[in-house]
């Protein structure tokens, strides 16, 4: 009959199991709880892996050995599912096996424990093997307990009246392990979905390919650097695994709003659209043809016709150069305005401009390729990101993903968008994402509106934005530059999987 003390230990074990969330540590807690309840010296937890039982955690108190429970399995060969092995038999039959002395037992093959004893000097005597099954009766593995001890520490057989208590705890442990697996599988499924959504956004545009994935690599390495710095100074690490995962997920989802951004805006490689360039070519050719007709009719001289021919060709070439220029100084804009003021008379006698108002507006863009209206459309992706992520029911440990992702274009001096947050209104994690986003935009060699610039020049721009313009966090920017977290990551082309 179970004693009150045993019942208390069963309840305590249940509380420990239900409160443990880390999958690897959970296995350690399971074995430690069962060993304490059984008051034994050693134990091993096996889980089914294919057609064998794999060692996951091993404890031997008298030898001071403890392996597994940290994500790395003990370096032991798996146990094949053959009935002569007591653990395999217990698993296959689904019932507890109790052995008083392995050295006198002839029912099972104990050559493994005996060899272990010969190597280590340990003495395996009593043994109890308990199957682990979940609520549906599915077999997960077994727990093998060795050398039960009495109150004075002497080895004895495992008491039969303890078997029910041990089976109860082991059954609860199996359910907890299965639930932990389900949670991990659901989490992995959600993470896969996030990666697919992120890749879908990147793949919409050849100019955006790998952007979010590169940033995620930067983010993972940068927070690892911050953790090392904190550890070296004796402080708490700022990004434990859960918070790191939350930040990386925010990075992967920060541009999800671009699924609604028109491709003609997102993929715009120069100021003029192809249709506008075609119109300009046709118009310049029309002006040249009209000039030739005027020459033949004697309305202009051959010299004037030649000048007109040369001017239209030079104007067309210069307008197209302006369309792709990274920056347009005042003199080029003034020249273009002069072209826009010129007119010609068509066959029907209408006076028409050399440039339409829409063409003039596009060629008036001083920096980049987007007009004010187009930039508004592009910037709206952050609003859409916030809206889309508001539809996702994030778990508590991912509850900041939406806010961090939606704030990646906010700047400390309030000049960012869409909410014009400033200072402490911007979370540290969003400030990190902003730095990563700007850095990748500067150095990436696959953007439509400019070639990538050298890394050191990009770092200089980040430093100026932090320390002169007040847009970026100076401390985080300095740490980012110190981290060199981008090194070894391709800044263009396909991003290989990390090993």
Classify the oligomer.
Answer: single chain
**Element-by-element helix/strand order:** HHEEEEHEHEEEHHHHHHHEEHHHHHH
Rg measurement, Å: 36 Å
Low-pLDDT regions: 6-11, 13-20
Distance between the termini: 53 Å
Question: Tell me, what's the shape?
Answer: elongated
Structure characterization notes:
This protein has 499 residues and is of the alpha+beta class. The protein is 52% helix and 11% strand. It has helices spanning 4-19, 23-38, 86-93, 111-120, 163-204, 211-232, 241-253, 263-266, 274-296, 302-324, 330-341, 357-363, 372-389, 401-406, 428-443, 455-467, 474-483; strands at residues 40-49, 52-60, 65-68, 79-80, 97-99, 127-133, 139-149, 155-156, 343-345, 351-353. Strands 1, 2, 3, 4, 5, 6, 7 and 8 form an 8-stranded antiparallel beta sheet that branches. Helix 1 runs antiparallel to helix 2 (23-38) and helix 6 runs antiparallel to helix 7 (241-253). It is elongated, with a radius of gyration of 36 Å.
List keywords for this structure.
alpha+beta; eight-stranded antiparallel sheet; single chain; 499 residues
């Amino acid at each position: 009959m179970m004693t009150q003390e045993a019942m208390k230990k069963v309840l305590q074990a249940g509380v420990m199991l239900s409160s443990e969330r880390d999958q690897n540590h959970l296995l350690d807690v399971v074995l430690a709880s069962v060993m304490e309840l059984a008051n034994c010296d050693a134990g091993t937890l096996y889980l089914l892996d294919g057609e064998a039982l794999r060692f996951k955690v091993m404890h031997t108190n008298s030898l001071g050995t403890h392996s597994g429970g940290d994500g790395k399995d003990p370096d032991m060969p798996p146990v094949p599912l053959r009935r002569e092995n007591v653990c395999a038999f217990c698993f296959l039959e689904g019932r507890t096996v109790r052995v008083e002395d392995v050295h006198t037992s002839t029912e099972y093959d104990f050559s493994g424990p005996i060899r272990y004893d010969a190597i280590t000097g340990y003495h395996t005597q009593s043994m109890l093997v308990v199957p682990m099954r979940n609520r549906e009766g599915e077999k997960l593995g077994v727990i093998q307990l060795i050398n039960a001890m009495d109150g004075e520490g002497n080895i004895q057989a495992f008491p039969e009246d303890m078997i029910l208590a041990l089976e109860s705890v082991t059954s609860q442990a199996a359910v907890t392990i299965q639930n932990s697996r389900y949670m991990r599988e659901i989490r992995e499924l959600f993470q896969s979905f996030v990666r697919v959504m992120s890749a879908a956004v990147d793949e919409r545009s050849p100019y955006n390919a790998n952007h979010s994935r590169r940033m995620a690599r930067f983010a993972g390495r940068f927070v690892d650097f911050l953790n090392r710095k904190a550890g070296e100074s004796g402080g708490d690490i700022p990004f434990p695994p859960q918070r790191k995962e939350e930040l990386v997920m925010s990075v992967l989802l920060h541009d999800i709003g671009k699924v609604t951004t028109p491709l003609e805006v997102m993929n715009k490689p120069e100021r003029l659209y192809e249709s506008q360039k075609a119109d300009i070519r046709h118009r310049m050719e029309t002006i040249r043809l009209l000039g030739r007709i005027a020459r033949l009719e004697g309305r202009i001289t051959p010299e004037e016709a030649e000048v007109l021919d040369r001017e239209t060709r030079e104007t067309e070439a210069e307008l197209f150069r302006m369309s792709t220029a990274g920056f347009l100084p005042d003199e080029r804009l003034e020249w273009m305005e002069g072209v826009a003021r010129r007119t010609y008379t068509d066959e029907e006698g209408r006076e028409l401009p050399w440039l339409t108002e829409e063409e003039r507006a596009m060629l008036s863009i001083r920096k980049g390729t987007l007009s004010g209206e187009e930039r508004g459309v592009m910037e709206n992706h952050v609003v859409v990101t916030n809206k889309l992520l508001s539809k996702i029911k994030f778990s508590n440990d991912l509850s900041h993903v939406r806010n961090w992702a939606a704030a990646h274009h906010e700047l400390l001096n309030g000049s960012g968008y869409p909410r014009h947050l400033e200072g402490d209104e911007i979370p540290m994690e969003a400030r990190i994402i902003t730095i990563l986003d700007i850095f990748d935009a500067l150095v990436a060699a696959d953007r439509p509106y400019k070639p990538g610039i050298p890394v050191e020049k990009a770092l200089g721009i980040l430093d100026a934005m932090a320390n002169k313009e007040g847009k970026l966090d100076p401390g985080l920017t300095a740490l980012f530059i110190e981290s060199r977290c981008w090194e070894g990551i391709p800044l263009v082309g396909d991003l290989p999987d990390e090993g």
